[in-house]
Amino acid sequence: MPIRILIADDHSVVRKGIRMLLEDETDIQIVGEASDGDEAIDMLASIDTDVLLLDITMPRLSGLDALKVISHQYPSVRTLMFSMHSNPDYILKAVQHGAAGYLLKDTGLEEILRAVRTVVKGDLYYPPSASSVIIRSLVLPGANHRNEDPALSAKAALSIWNRITSREAQVLTCLIDGMSSPAIADRFGISPNTVANQRASIIRKAGVKNTVDLIRMALEEKNRS
Description:
By secondary structure, the protein is of the alpha/beta class. The protein has 11 helices and 5 strands. Strand 3, helix 3 and strand 4 form a beta-alpha-beta unit. The N and C termini lie far apart (about 50 Å).
């Protein structure tokens, strides 16, 4: 079954350009185009979608505001934020609101395809420039306490490092280093699916919502130890 993609951007030229780039790929099907966040949300209700390419700056409902709704109402849809801005605030908000990845609009076809095929498997796709912003935000003074959830703080009383297996600890260390699932799989001679399952297990044991929250917790506990 092809990967079903919905494109949301307020510029028709951009939408058409993305469609032209992707529609010749045999494993990809463009299922629709939306001109703003509201329209994207409405279309998701009636169109089966695997990956949403979502522009950040759009009229009426912005991409980031739409992402909040989509992550809650359509958790199975993998959202790739697509923007002309490499603004750290945009990148961090995209992560916080549940984006599966972040791409700049000058990204080439090969990277777009790599990102789409990565996120549809359940992995995250953040290029090095975006990953460095995320990692820096985790280690800056006070960053670990931003938007802190009291429930998560209570669960952190028992260190996540003491609740996971030795292999999971190795995977978690690699995640902190910014490694992707395929890279971790290559390092330990296992499949990317096994890495994804181990990451999901660690997240479940940590009681957090996503990989970013997991890394934040792990770094905080490691610094305290």
